[in-house]
Amino acid sequence: MLKKQTDLHPRLAKALQEPSSVSSAEVAELLEAAKAEIATAEEAVKNARVAALDVSLTQAQVEAQHDAVSKARFNLERWTHWSGELAKLFDIRAAEEAVEAKRKVLSASEAVRDACAERIRKEYPAIQAALLSLIGDIAQARAAVLAANADLPDGAEPLHMPEGVAFGYPDTPKKRLVGARPAQISEMLVPNFKDYAKPAWPPNWSGLARGRLTEWEIDSLLSAALADGLLKVTQK
Fold first, then answer.
1. Which residue of 96, 156, 202, 213 is 20 to 30 Å from 80, comparing CA positions?
2. d(Cα 196, Cα 131) in Å, to the nearest integer?
3. What angle, rounded to 10 degrees, do the helices at 215-227 and 59-149 form?
4. Contacts for 190 with CB less than 8 Å, ≥ 6 apart
5. 133 burial type by CB count under 10 A (0-12 exposed, 13-18 middle, 19+ buried)
6. How far, in Å, are 1, 167, 168, 182 from residue 202 at the CA level?
7. How confident is the model at residue 229, as a pLDDT?
8. What 8-state DSSP symbol labels residue 174?
9. Which residues are paired to 176 by β-bridges?
10. Whole-number Å distance between alpha carbons of 77 and 74
């Protein structure tokens, strides 16, 4: 609330003459004060009219009271007009502030987005290379396990696949998890930093492709990729 009523008119005049200099909250404060002035002015008009109807007044007093009524009404008209202008200004400033708030959110979001994009540009190429190298090693290891398990010596247990050993779950033809199969690095979709239209892995991928690969499809995929030189093997 306004602490000093004497400050009201100068502040009101500045708000209406320089609308961009005030916030919607300040306009709301002025509007509340203006409404209080209207209530006071209405009471003044009522009192002046009652006083003007006093039968005991002399002609001079009647004329003076007539002037008082006119002044009170004029004052009421002014505050009513200013109140309407303040109401319009409040709507305008509130709308402008809403737009500005959205612009700030947009700018902040853009900054977060750009920082993330810059990190992707700096870090992802190395991550992509590391993933492809790892998938190459997995392909080599799986091929070795498949070959060994296909001709085991008497009494030997089948070897587990490399990802099963690393993550700690059984993965042999005789021992596998029942139900949902764990996610595997070898079936990971690896975006290609140099070509967004197709991933770096797996090859021949389509955005319309169905769900996850079967075990046979993974082994076939990795074997073909190794044979075609699509994967680099770091462990010789």
1. 96
2. 17
3. 80
4. 128, 131, 132, 135, 199, 200, 201
5. middle
6. 67, 22, 25, 18
7. 83
8. S
9. 171
10. 5
**Region for residue 232 given its phi and psi (left: phi exceeds 0; alpha: psi -120 to 50; beta: otherwise):** beta
pLDDT score, position 100: 96
Which residues, given as ranges, of the chain have pLDDT below 70?
1-6, 178-179, 207-213, 233-236
**Beta pairing partners, 190:** 201
The residue whose two tokens read 């919607």 is: 24
pLDDT tens profile 148-170: 999 999 999 999 999 999 999 88
User: Residue 70: what residue type?
Assistant: S
Tokens of 29: 């404060």
Domain boundaries, the chain: 7-116, 120-227
CA angle 114, 118, 121 (to 5 degrees): 140
CB count within 10 Å of CB 78 equals 15
Do residues 128 and 200 make contact, with C-beta atoms less than 8 angstroms apart?
yes
Report pLDDT digits (tens) over 91-110: 999 999 999 999 999 999 99
Residue 188 phi/psi, 5-degree rounding, is -65, 140
Q: What is the pLDDT of residue 2?
A: 35
Within the chain, where are the H helices? 8-17, 24-52, 59-149, 162-167, 215-227
Q: Is 117 helix (H, G, I), strand (E, B) or coil?
A: helix
